[in-house]
Every structure is written in structure tokens, then in C-alpha cells.
Amino acid sequence: MNENVDENQSRQAKNASDSASASERSPRVARSVLGEGSAPKSESAAWPLNGNAAGKSSRQRKRTPRARRMSLSLTRVDAWSVAKVTLLLSVAFGIIQIVAVALIWALLNVVGVFDQVTQIVSSTGLDTGGFNLASVFSLGTVLSAVTILSIVEVVVATLFAVIIAALYNVISQLVGGVHVTLGDD
């Protein structure tokens, strides 16, 4: 049994030394992305000693790399994926809308726009019962209205996006989808 173990170890050692000597003999060769090998055919081509061979090999290697192009078609859009993304984006837009309206209301209140409009209305004689624009457009009333509007916008935008995705899937089956050509620079 010890003889088998010794034979296996000697084979492994021989294979390791063979692979090490093989890697010492041949230089590593770079390959291009396009799959064109620039590997030399012989050792003399890899390491030219005279100037003529060096000039020829340098002209061959100085090719300009060509940009890769790939033509793709967008033939199907997953409606559930569109629904999830649209829902999250419209919720984010709704939150931004509520915060923006609150900031605009605060700015208008600080500047005194509501008081000036109330004074203008009362000076024209249209003030019949103590009109106060600040009480009509209070912060709570404005934010409630904008929140309700944002919720409606979220539902409508999500449904609209899902309907558009379903229509795109039907139309792309007829015409083959949107064709896109991608290229790297």
C-alpha cells in the first residue's frame, strides 16, 4: 500500500515539474477581446533578432481595435416589474410633491402673500364677511388636498404604466419590438 502512495506522489511531482518547465519554455500570449489571437507561430516570430522581422510584426500588431457592436431587440416587458417600479417611483414623486407644497406654503406665509391678498380683496369692496385667505388656505387644508391628489396620482400612474406595458407586449409581437444597437467606445 505504501508503494501505491509513493507512486502517486512521484507522478504528481513529475506532472508539476512538467507543467512548470512548460510554462518556462513558452511565453504568455495576450489575446484580444474579439478572439483574435496575437500568439506567435514560432519562437522566432515571438522574439525577432533582426530589424526586418520586428518591423513586420509591429505593423501587424498596430491594428486599430474595432469597436464591438451588438444588435438587440426589446421584445417583451414584464408588466409586474413595470408595476413595482412605477409604484415606487410615483410614491417617491408624491412625497416630493407634498414636501414641495409645504415649503412653498411656508415661504408664501413668511413673505406675507396671504395677508396682502386679503388686504387687496378688502380694499376693493368685495369683502362681504371678513374674507381671510390664510384661513381658507391653511397649511392643514393644503397638505390634505395635496396628499389626496398624490394618492390618486400614484394609483393612476401605476395603472397607466401597466396598461402601456401590456400594449407594448401586444404590439411588439406584431412588429418585433424595439431594435437597439449597442457599441463600446
Determine the mean pLDDT: 78
What composes the largest sheet? 2 strands, antiparallel
Continuous helix count: 7
Query: Which descriptor suits the 3D outline?
Result: elongated
Give the neighbour order of strands across the main sheet.
1-2
Q: Give the uncertain stretches in residue-range form.
A: 37-46
Strand % is: 5-15%
Strands, count: 2
Report the structural category. mainly alpha
The helix-strand sequence is HHHEHHHHE
Distance between the terminal alpha carbons, to the nearest Å? 62 Å
Cα-atom Rg, whole angstroms?
Answer: 37 Å
Helix content: 55-70%
Describe this structure in words.
The structure is a single chain. The chain has helices spanning 2-25, 43-46, 51-61, 79-111, 113-124, 133-136, 139-175, and strands at residues 69-74, 178-183. It has 185 residues and is mainly alpha-helical. A two-stranded antiparallel ribbon has the order 1-2. Helix 4 packs antiparallel against helix 7 (139-175). The longest helix has 37 residues, at 139-175. It is elongated, with a radius of gyration of 37 Å.
